[in-house]
Amino acid sequence: MRNTAFRVFFLIAFLGVGAAISWLRTPANVETAPTSLLAKASPPPEPKADEPAHQASAMVPISNRKPNVLPNYSEVVAEAAKRALAGDGRAALLVVDGLVRCLPIKVQFGNKPDPRAAFESELESYRDPPQWLIDRKRSEFASCSGFLNTDPFAGLPERPKGYESIRFWNDLAYQENDPVAVVQHAAAQNGIMTGTADTSTLQATQAEINKSAMTGDPEALFKIGSLIADGRVGQDTLSGYAAMIAACNMGYDCTTSNEFAYGACSAANTCPQGEIYTDKMRNTIGDTNYAKAYRLAQQLQDALARGDTNTILQFVRLKGALSIASR
After folding, report:
1. Taking a C-beta distance cutoff of 8 angstroms, is the pair 277, 258 a contact?
2. For residue 64, what is the DSSP state?
3. Helix 199-214 and helix 179-187: axis angle, to 10°?
4. Please, are residues 243 and 228 in contact by the beta-carbon 8 Å criterion?
5. Which CA distances in Å does 74 have to 60, 109, 181?
6. What does the pLDDT read at residue 289?
7. CB-based contact 118:27 (threshold 8 Å)
8. Three-state secondary structure of 32-51
9. Does the first or last residue of the chain, that is N or C, have fewer Cβ atoms within 10 Å of its Cβ?
10. Torsion of CA 166, 170, 176, 180, to 10 degrees
11. Mean pLDDT on 127-132
């Protein structure tokens, strides 16, 4: 029974990486705020169209790598919660990330007389887990330990249901019109990720995608691109890759430390040493298509810099939806 419980704990905690979970979690239906102004993004120096921004390096032994350093999530959440209640939608998403990572640990071990000892006992009872997973779980436990003995929401205005609600903070980010939260809300609508949404849902989702894209927010742009690059979702998959390349050029973290982009290999610290996501895209779509996507990315960045709505919206078209203007 203990092995079963621990396997469940591992599964919840590992799959509960904040970016991935919040990407698919649907906020409650709330009225959207007016679109924000376009962020003026300066295009990067133009490299050769057939060359990526960075070349991948060879693999190196896992033992020679440093694991991703996790923050003290109790401190992160405490500070982010205050900013979120003051109107910072991106801070609300930081709270979501911390809760997704740490609530399973609090539920599993928070009521134990000695949480650390209970955690280590579970580790010992699990049969032959890979060392990277053991190291990762210990790092996650340490980074979430503040949730076991302190309340990161202490001092906030009283709320009947408290603040340990992922839904509450996701809704708040969406209400505050954060571009990433808007994309997450769009992606979570019925049938969008599988290409089976009805016309009404497609049109409403397209409007949200358009609104988020027009902000020029690099993280939102990357997540929009990851949607459009899926042939079930986007009208032109190459435009999706272009949006992701543009996001990387504009400052989004496209290194292997980004668990949203790299998934399990980032958590396991097994990604190719020195690789960035544009390398991965080039390996996925080939040199010719990558060169086309890179040229398109430069066009998108230029359009964002000059506020060219018509051009920007051509990059974010959902399959089956009209590319209606941002609302």
Report:
1. yes
2. G
3. 160
4. yes
5. 33, 16, 22
6. 97
7. no
8. CCCCCCCCCCCCCCCCCCCC
9. N
10. 140
11. 85
Q: Return the amino acid letter for 160.
A: P
3-state secondary structure of 159: coil
> pLDDT by residue (tens digit) across 50-103?
333 333 222 223 233 344 678 999 999 999 999 999 999 999 999 999 999 999
| Rounded CA separation 285/239 (Å) | 12
- Which two tokens mark 224? 């929009």
Burial of 214 (0-12, 13-18, 19+ CB in 10 A): buried
Task: Write the burial class of residue 296 (CB in 10 Å: 0-12 exposed, 13-18 middle, 19+ buried).
Answer: buried
pLDDT in tens, 147-205: 999 999 999 999 999 999 999 999 999 999 999 999 999 999 999 999 999 999 999 99
Is 220 exposed, middle or buried (CB count within 10 Å of its CB: 0-12, 13-18, 19+)?
Answer: buried
pLDDT confidence bin for 286, thresholds 50/70/90: very high
Cα–chain-centroid distance for residue 36? 21
Which pair of tokens denotes residue 195?
A: 């290409």
